[in-house]
Amino acid sequence: MTYPSDRLYREVGYLAYHLHWSLDDLLDLEHPERLRFVDEVARINTRREQGV
After folding, report:
1. Separation of alpha carbons 14 and 1, rounded Å
2. Is 37 within 8 Å of 29 (Cβ atoms)?
3. Predicted confidence (pLDDT) per residue in 34-48, tens digit
4. Radius of gyration of the chain (CA)
5. Cβ of 15: how many Cβ atoms within 10 Å?
6. What's 2's DSSP letter?
7. Which helix (H) or strand (E) holds 52?
8. Which helix (H) or strand (E) holds 1?
9. DSSP per-residue string spanning 3-51
10. pTM above 0.70, yes or no
């Protein structure tokens, strides 16, 4: 099974924007680990938007 490239670009772009990590570092992450970081960044952004 291959991972859809458009989804990979969204995940990597999102994390690169928020975490300022290199492309190589982001691509070295295993898929579940990368998704965990996406979820954590999204959670932080949601809390910040809500003023929590």
Report:
1. 23
2. yes
3. 999 999 999 999 999
4. 12
5. 19
6. P
7. none
8. none
9. PPHHHHHHHHHHHHHHH---HHHHHHS-HHHHHHHHHHHHHHHHHHHTT
10. yes
